[in-house]
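Chain X:
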Amino acid sequence: MEQANKLGIKAKILSADGFSNPEIFDLAKDYADGVIFSNSADESKMAGDLRKAFEEKYNDRWKEKPDSFSLNSYDSANILIRAIEKVYTESGADDQNKLNLDRDKIRDYVSATSNYDGVSGKITFLASGDAIKNVGIFKADAKNKKYDQIAVYKIDENGKLVEIK
């Protein structure tokens, strides 16, 4: 970004979810201003009790607000654990004792996830394996060291990308 600026390049800089790390403002300084990137949509304004409780526990432990990676990782782990528990309870005693669990069944339970109420929002998987989950488009505000969500999209039940207004 600094090199582009020094060369007089005026193009919009696009990035990915890693740009959401607030350290970018210390590293890139004013060059981060206006960078546009995608990340999990910020749905904190619609947050329910589950998310609020998670944020509180996370902040108590780490002394900072959880980012999208923390929220998504927590939900992913819980979806996977739930699938493993289902397969475990359906397995015979011998397989349970040996923890010999059918991986295909675990995968099938994960992919059958529908309207899972997670700390990052509602999660549903399509048959294709894609998640129906809101994706935010953000713009970096280097002066105020924050990100503004400028749009939200999701994949609908037909696999089409739609903007959420």
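Chain Y:
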Amino acid sequence: MRLRLQHSCQFGSGDRICYHGVTDIFREPKPAAGFYRSQCDPDEEIVLVPAFHWAAGDENVGFSKALVSSNCDHLKFYINDKLVGEADPDRTQFPHLKYPLFSTAPSRDREVGWGDLRIDGFIQGNKVISRSFSGKGVDQKFALLADDTKLVADGADTTRVVLRVTDEFDAIRPFANDASVLN
């Protein structure tokens, strides 16, 4: 009797689904999408997208650098409204990019503790964007969003509908799994 070993291609999680890329299986943007968006001119769109998720209880094992994709020229980081850090584009690590990523070490300030994160983006000294992320780690909102608000009733028109769970600042909660958010 001869045994035949079959090699099966396993993608990361072992379920034969490839999870890398800029969008998830439902075409929702992942942090990598923020990188590509950030390479446009700020006159077209001002972009500020962290390449990490902010939630209480998340382990910071191996989290020594926080990367943020933005086409701003300066960022300020606040926890509980206290300034905990500032960063300029990391032109040393990303010299080939028109709008380099921002790379900064997470704050270890015990006086500030854990809390809501706010990142303000500046261009030529003017604040042009601000994004906030809840430090609670709690699913707060449930949103139903259609790609199109009008359809042509010709039998061939379709749209995508996204169900999204967010924190109180409308930041997507990527690991939401609690049915209580629907109550």
